[in-house]
UniProtKB/TrEMBL annotation:
MF GO annotations: pyridoxal phosphate binding; transaminase activity
Keyword Transferase on entry: yes
Obligatory cofactor(s): pyridoxal 5'-phosphate
PROSITE patterns: AA_TRANSFER_CLASS_3
Pfam families: Aminotran_3
Official protein name in the record: Aspartate aminotransferase family protein
Organism: Cypionkella aquatica
CDD domains: OAT_like (cd00610)
Record's keyword terms, sorted: Aminotransferase, Pyridoxal phosphate, Transferase
Length: 439
């Protein structure tokens, strides 16, 4: 059965070891929020506080957060909290008035990109950023066809949910959306770049046969929902060339791999030696404050800008800009990109060491502090979702938070805050080893 990404590691009502108080909370949640929401873990975690890489429940128990890229510079980072509070006490206004803060941040952010990417438009969420990219791509190219990977996630607006197959079969793909296999080196033969480009070209050819003009290729540049595929560096370039030759644009979704997480580069697309037409940003940008954006080459916005005005009440407001500026300053002042490179390498080495002792640990894919560990049964191509689920929930019982991803639900998605240390890695590895010994 096709994987429903909303159900990986999801709580099933009536199961788990919930206290009476938390059972009441789950019931209240169902009454107030309705049936479409999901909770993590067989026994959900009731959190009340966060600090750095740690989250705390009401009894003061500390949980190591090895999953949360939203709080990219650590939960409740004091410099970010102070910047948010300071600006909120002065002015919270939108981009229809002149104010310095949004321009200061825009210029600082754009300086981290190649010179060709010199415009930025602000939104509140990555979903909105990708929805805006969708609209701009259609206006720029005159096309309507979009290509995504088979288990991609790009957001929850109507158009973008239709380009997010990981939401499951209950969410229909857009009529002009085509899917391609993820760049999985285990399942694609020969040169990975050529193989992935061939998938994209086949999707383009199918569109053209059906009278659909291609508008764009959008990929999360770490392919996180597809199972985390980080390399080899440069393999994306032929696929980008293919979509551009067909008149479409390349949109790099950097919501998850961006802001230094991959270690060697600030942005995931830089690992492939390509300059996207547009780059979408989201979750880590505000360390939990809802701020996101779309960075682009000026030529792609010309047609859209000539015909349509764009306005977002909260996108780019002064508080959002001040918060995002503080996040960027922390990444730079605390050398968190370099930390991701060094600690991520240490993390990968530790996982490889355990793989020699536990047969269920299959291929590991890693770039900085973004790691995907396959859980297998008897061989690298034999996914073991059941054992993966037991590991995730076993770690939760050991107060280490992690989740799973991929179309076969068998990849541990390891994506901690960028302030993760080698000591934190050791803590994780000790807990992981203990869980592996039991499963």
């Amino acid at each position: 059965m096709k994987n429903d990404g909303t159900m990986i590691n999801a709580y099933v009502p009536g199961r788990g070891d919930l206290s009476a108080a938390d059972q009441d909370l789950v019931a209240r949640r169902a009454r107030a929020l309705g049936p479409a929401y999901r909770l993590f873990y067989e026994t959900p975690v009731h959190l009340v506080r966060g600090e750095g890489v740690w989250l705390y429940d009401g009894d003061g128990n500390a949980y190591l957060d090895t999953y949360n890229n939203v709080a990219s510079v650590g939960h409740c980072h004091p410099a970010v909290v102070a910047a948010t509070a300071k600006q909120a006490a002065i002015l919270s206004s939108h981009t229809r008035y002149l104010h310095d803060t949004v321009l200061d941040y825009a210029e600082r952010l754009l300086a981290t990109f190649p010179a060709e990417l010199s415009h930025v438009m602000f939104t509140c969420t990555g979903s909105e950023a990708n929805d805006l990219a969708f609209r701009i791509a259609r206006a720029h190219t005159g096309g309507t066809g979009f290509i995504v990977t088979e288990n991609a996630y790009h957001g929850v607006t109507y158009a973008i949910a239709g380009m997010s197959p990981s939401l499951g079969e209950g969410v229909a793909l857009g009529e002009h959306v085509r899917t391609v296999r993820a760049p999985d080196p285990l399942r694609m033969q020969g040169d990975l770049g050529a193989a992935f480009a061939a998938e994209v070209q086949a999707a383009i050819d199918d569109m053209l046969r059906h009278g659909i003009k291609p508008a764009g290729l959008i990929v999360d540049t770490i392919f996180s929902s597809d199972g985390v595929f980080e390399g080899p560096a440069g393999f994306l370039a032929p696929a980008v060339a293919a979509i551009r030759a067909a008149g479409g644009v390349f949109i790099a979704d950097e919501v998850q791999p961006g802001f230094g997480r991959c270690g060697d580069t600030m942005w995931g697309f830089q690992r492939h030696g390509v300059v996207p037409d547009m780059v979408s940003l989201g979750k880590p940008m505000g360390n939990g404050y809802p701020v996101a954006g779309l960075v682009m080459q000026p030529r792609v916005i010309a047609a859209f800008g000539a015909k349509a005005r764009y306005f977002n009440t909260f996108g780019g407001n002064a508080v959002a800009a001040a918060t995002a500026m503080a996040v960027l300053e922390v990444i730079e002042s605390e050398a968190l990109q370099e930390n991701a490179r060094v600690v991520g390498g240490y993390f990968a080495d530790g996982l490889r060491g355990l793989a020699g002792r536990f047969e269920c640990l299959g291929p590991l894919r890693a770039a900085g502090l973004f790691l995907g560990q396959e859980i297998v049964a008897g061989g690298p191509l034999k996914a073991d979702a059941a054992t993966c689920a037991r590991i995730v929930n076993g770690l939760r019982e050991a107060r280490v938070l992690i989740s799973a991803t991929g179309p076969r639900s068998n990849v541990l998605k390891i994506r901690p805050p960028l302030v993760f240390s080698k000591a934190n890695v050791d803590h994780f590895l000790a807990a992981f080893e203990g869980v592996l010994a039991k499963v």
